[in-house]
Amino acid sequence: MNRALALSMWGVALLLTACVDEKPSAIKPTPDDVTRRACHTVLYVVERSNHYFALNLSAGGKSSASPDVELRAAGRELLAAAEEAYALEMNSDGEVDMTQSEARIATAQQKAMAVCVGLMGEPPWA
User: Fold this and answer.
1) If you ran DSSP here, which 8-state letter would residue 124 be given?
2) At residue 26, does pLDDT exceed 60?
3) Distance from the CA of 17 to the CA of which of 28, 51, 82, 112 falls in 20 to 30 A?
């Protein structure tokens, strides 16, 4: 009797799961430590409106080391913009207009920040 009851309950469970149209919700994976640190560094420079190359070299370097493909691409863009600004300033003896370089850094920061928000949600992050 117990076996028949168990089999009938199993059959009911299978029938109910086959009738459900809902798909299981996708759980967003938690970003790894490298990605979290990179996003915190990007947030730091964005919050301070820092478009100078020094801190952005660090933010770009950390972001370009992320295992996340989108953040890595945004980090490489930020790193390239910061390296370009560094080269421009070092080769000009400080007598060059850095407006375009700083604008490129700001654009790259916003791209990296958008990726971080997509990965971790809106700041503040823990």
Assistant:
1) P
2) no
3) 28
